[in-house]
Write a structure and sequence with these properties.
Strand content: 25-35%
Structural class: alpha+beta
Largest sheet: 7 strands, antiparallel
Order of helices and strands: HHHHHEHEHEEEEEEE
Shape: rod-shaped
Number of helices: 7
Distance between the termini: 52 Å
Number of strands: 9
Helix content: 10-25%
Radius of gyration: 31 Å
Strand order of the largest sheet: 3-4-9-5-6-7-8
Amino acid sequence: MTQEQLGALIGTDKTVISKLESGRTRLSQQRMMAIAASLGCGVAELLEPATAAVAPSDWEQDDASVEVAEVDIYGDRRGGFLSSHQGASHGGKPQGFREDETIAPWRFPASYLSAELQVRPAAVRIVEVRGDGMEPTLLPGDRVMVNLADQSPSPPGIFALWDGQGVVIKRLELIMGSHPPMVEIRSDNPHHRVYERAAADIDIIGRVVWVGRRL
């Protein structure tokens, strides 16, 4: 409806309507009721602020979220993980994960996992970082996502592994030219020593691909 048409309906001209819209002329109660009647709405509706319809983002339209389990790696029973020699996975569950150790569900956009992190949702788990071994890269209380499908220390990276006493987060690098293959196990904290182990003797759980931290 144009200003001229509205003005005609309430017995005035488009100049007055323009001044009302711009706030240069005060809108009286009588004129407000006339405008509402002409538009077929109530006075309350007329006074409501206009809100633009917000279209869902591409993320909201096209992307579903998926659940990733946080597991307890510091309890009993090998810290929530099954090593490779404890048998194959069952029922489609990734090997190395104890379903009964789940302590919390996390949700991530499916496309973020597949496109950005390049992992399969079924093959990742969230674990808590404890201790100062990986400071300053990882701090106590951080959560990291472990890709159970990537257990190779080449290329180098940060991994969750079983060290014979428990599950730890360390930086691993395959020592090139070593026979048999040897792996350097390093903490980012310089107060922790660097050591080497035969690749065959290391029980690697998976590569760390994501970290979450409370500020």
